[in-house]
Amino acid sequence: MFAPATPLSAASADAAAAAANSARLDALLRAQVWRASSLGTSHSACVGSGFATLDAELPGGGWPTQSLSEILSDSVATLEWRLLAPALRLLLAGDTRDAGGARQQAPLNGARKAGRRPARAMATRPERPARPERPLLLINPPLTPHLPGLQRAGLPPQRLIWIAPETPAQQLWALEQAIKANASAAILAWLPRAAPEQIRRLQSCAQVMDAPIFLFRPLALQTQSSAAPLRLCVSTGPGWTLQVQILKRRGPVHEGILSLPALPPDLAQVLTPRMLNLALPRVTTPAPLPTPVAVEARHALARPATQPSASHR
Predict the structure, then answer these.
(1) Is the pLDDT higher at 88 or at 21?
(2) Confidence bin at 11 (pLDDT 50/70/90)
(3) Strand ranges (DSSP E) for the chain?
(4) In the chain, how many H helices and how many E strands?
(5) Which range has highest mean pLDDT (64-73, 75-84, 148-157, 254-263)?
(6) What is the CA angle 62-65-67, rounded to 5?
(7) How open is the CA angle 296-298-303, to the nearest 5 degrees?
(8) How far is CA 8 from the centre of its chain?
(9) Residue spans of alpha helices (H) in the chain
(10) Dist CA 132 CA 181 (whole Å)
(11) Vertex 248 angle, CA 244 and 254, to 5°
(12) Cβ distance 92 to 137 under 8 Å?
């Protein structure tokens, strides 16, 4: 016979459950709340940017999912690809491996063992249906995507979907529907005229998408408020580098500029060593002009006119 459970065992079980709930709540709080002096963590999965220097400064160590990443630049549809190509290439390659179909089942029980015969044939499991390859969405790009160049960067053209809405309202609607569908490997959207309240609505919708969402906006809007948890400024630098400044992140204010080597591999094979080491011209402050020395003018036309005396009135 078994002894009945004592109240002490029930109390210990309740205490264990309470401790587990407390640990789970602490983990959730650590993901949502961070100290201003330390880099915050990401409550969602992150995708490595391909630049170790940049990953070290991003919460979670890469581009976040389930939130917006706003990139500000004055260059139109050129710096974006140099900055995001490594991450997008990894995203599409990983999605291709997942979509390759179910793995082939190994032979049943391996090779037949010596002296033993299988009693009966075992039924094979049905193969899992292949996961469709998710596309890369381009919403309102300012220029026509150059498919050969993107393919050389490791982005297959058949995985790209170009959406060209005509009006700002249609651009916002297309982006919101793409986010809610949650069916793409990543979304790249150019929204030069989006208002702060519209960015806030998109950020609210982005919490259901398990892929990165990148917004590209003009550099002149860096002083405008934005609900995007991550904001960066990107510009060109010396030696074919990208100069990245982190304006907003979950953590302390980032001071300084990150210099990222972003020379396309095909271009590196064509450029000469002198062109590879080419740097942008430095802007120097011109020397002040010498102060002119006052010289007494002796010509009558160069002297100021004098007031006529009272006797000539």
Answers:
(1) 88
(2) confident
(3) 46-47, 63-64, 68-72, 136-139, 160-163, 186-190, 213-217, 230-237, 241-248, 258-261
(4) 8, 10
(5) 64-73
(6) 110
(7) 80
(8) 53
(9) 7-32, 52-55, 79-98, 147-152, 168-181, 196-206, 265-270, 273-276
(10) 14
(11) 60
(12) no
Closest residue by Cα to residue 274 from 301, 240, 235, 248: 240
pLDDT of 290 reads 54
Predicted local distance difference test score (pLDDT) of residue 269: 77
pTM: 0.69
Query: For tokens 């179910």, what's the residue?
Result: 102
For the chain, the maximum distance between any two Cα atoms, rounded to a whole number of angstroms, is 145
Q: Return d(Cα 44, Cα 58) in angstroms, integer.
A: 13
The tally of CA atoms less than 13 A away on the side-chain side of residue 11 is 3
Question: What's the pLDDT tens digit per position in 42-80?
Answer: 677 899 999 999 999 999 899 999 999 999 998 877 789
Length of the chain: 313
Distance, in Å, from the CA atom of 124 to the CA atom of 111, rounded to the nearest integer, reads 16
Residue type, 191: L
Gap between the Cα atoms of 142 and 42, Å rounded: 31
Helix 168-181 vs helix 196-206: angle between axes, to the nearest 10 degrees?
20
Tokens of 299: 């010509």
pLDDT at 76: 73
Q: Can you tell me which residue has the tokens 């590196």?
A: 268
- The amino acid occupying position 178 is A
Q: Is the pLDDT score of 6 beyond 80?
A: no
* Residue 89: closest CA among 47, 145, 132, 126: 47
pLDDT digits (tens, 9 = 90+) for 79-130: 899 999 999 999 998 765 444 443 333 333 443 344 444 444 444 445 545 5
